[in-house]
Specification:
Blueprint (H helix, E strand, L loop, with lengths): L16 H11 L8 H13 L5 E5 L2 H11 L7 E4 L6 H8 L3 E4 L11 H7 L4 E7 L8 H11 L2 E5 L7 E2 L10 E5 L12 E5 L2 H11 L7 H5 L19 H12 L1 H19 L14 E2 L5 E4 L5 H10 L15 H7 L7 H9 E4 L7 H16 L2
Parallel strand pairs: 2-3, 2-4, 4-5, 5-7
Antiparallel strand pairs: 1-8, 6-9, 7-8, 10-11
Helix pairs in contact: 1-9, 2-9, 3-4, 3-7
The chain binds pyridoxal-5'-phosphate.
The site of pyridoxal-5'-phosphate (PLP) has 14 residues, from helix 3 and helix 4.
Length: 382
């Protein structure tokens, strides 16, 4: 399926010849699923993140968040603090582990967790914080680390947007106890679906591989190395493994991840300049000391007009999305946790005003100008 000719797509992936060659080669191997190429990718990602860390390839970021919580023995009766300004996976994983998500409001400039409010939400049942690096900009990890140390909490990073993010000299996984990554189709590197977890504590890490493969004592790849040996099931695990085909697709993308980030950075600057002086249009700020992964570019428009913008931009052939409506107001969370409008006013305000516009390395300058002109045209009639 090709692009519609006069449409500016919301997203186009950057997978090309290198990935085709890598996957073609991997198809010639005896193992299609978890094996040597996954190992190679795990080592490459650990290296990219700065070393001193173990990485396990997984089927999704959702799986990574779930296993992180299980790895730290978080479950029923425990509270886990997280952001309402995120994709539902961040909170769903907490429910999968049997724990209770406790939402805390976000900063108005970045949409990331407000550390002072995290501090105020800690109770004797709190066991962890799942912080979300929204749009690729890392949370204030130094402050969160200090807070988590003070209260003996595990710090888990939802780095689905931020494999290539950096703040105060640290990458995801360096200050958190675990970092979860997504390789879903629209993320900064992709295997259509896929994920990974990075963990610094090797004892915790040792628990994760069996948990990702039904609790089996050894995977098929390890067993293949010798003559037949029986395997055992030592714990109740899940089916969360990454495949060699996915790893083959990810390796060349990881090698150019910073180049692709730089391309999105350049485009993001063009948007920021175009909207900087427009009354009624705002956007999140990248703070000093941060290099955002620039996963998404969002503009914040007046709440009363947001849905009209979405329709009219769509009619003008501009692909748009909403990342995100505050998740505590989605039906399930509203019913399950009893939150009402007004509970987290900053997240609600962002959720009511936000529009994501096209941002990807192959977005052409003329396409970006069309996006800017369309936004300004729709804005002028409000
Ligand atoms: C995409 C996303 C996830 C889930 O990633 P999957 O790999 O699809 O499970 C989690 N958190 C955030 C913030 C995301 O954007």
């Amino acid at each position: 399926m090709s692009d519609k000719p006069d449409r500016v797509e919301f997203y186009r992936h950057s997978v090309g010849d290198e990935e085709v060659a890598a996957v073609t080669e991997a198809l010639g191997d005896i193992f299609l699923t978890t094996g040597a190429r996954v190992k190679q990718f795990e080592l490459a990602l650990a290296d990219y993140l700065g070393g001193g860390i173990d990485v396990l390839g997984l089927s999704s970021c959702t799986a990574a968040l779930h296993l992180a919580l299980l790895g730290f023995d978080i479950g029923p009766g425990d509270e886990v603090i997280t952001s309402p300004m995120t994709f539902v996976a961040s909170a769903n994983a907490i429910l999968y582990a049997g724990a209770t998500p406790v939402f805390v409001d976000v900063e108005p400039t970045t949409g990331n967790l407000d550390v002072a409010q995290v501090s105020a939400a800690v109770t004797p049942r709190t066991k962890a914080v799942v912080c979300v690096h929204l749009y690729g900009q890392l949370c204030d990890m130094r402050a969160l680390r200090e807070l988590c140390d003070r209260h003996d909490l595990r710090l888990i990073e939802d780095a689905a947007h931020a494999v290539d993010g950096l703040r105060d000299g640290v990458r995801p996984g360096q200050l958190g106890d675990a970092a979860a990554f997504s390789f879903h189709a629209v993320k900064n590197i992709t295997s259509a679906e896929g994920g990974a977890i990075a963990v610094r504590d090797s004892e915790v890490f040792a628990k994760l591989r069996p948990l990702s493969l039904h609790g089996q004592s050894a995977g098929a790849d390890a067993r293949y190395a010798s003559t037949y040996r029986h395997w055992d099931m030592v714990t109740l695990g899940y089916k969360y493994n990454l495949t060699n085909l996915q790893a083959a697709m990810l390796l060349p993308q990881l090698a150019r991840v910073d180049r692709q980030r730089d391309a999105r950075e350049r485009l993001a600057h063009v948007y920021e300049q175009a909207f900087a002086d427009v009354d009624g249009i705002e956007f999140p700020r990248v703070v000093d000391g941060a290099t955002s992964g620039r996963h998404l570019f969002t503009i914040w428009v007046p709440a009363a007009d947001r849905d009209r913008y979405l329709t009219e931009l769509g009619e003008r052939g501009i692909g748009v999305a909403v990342n995100y409506r505050a998740i505590h107001l989605l039906s399930y969370y509203q019913q399950r946790l009893g939150h009402l409008r007004g509970s987290f006013p900053v997240a609600e305000s962002i959720g009511d005003r936000t529009i994501s516009i096209p941002l990807y390395p192959s977005l052409r300058d003329d396409e970006q100008q069309r996006v800017i002109e369309a936004v300004l045209a729709v804005h002028r009639v409000s």
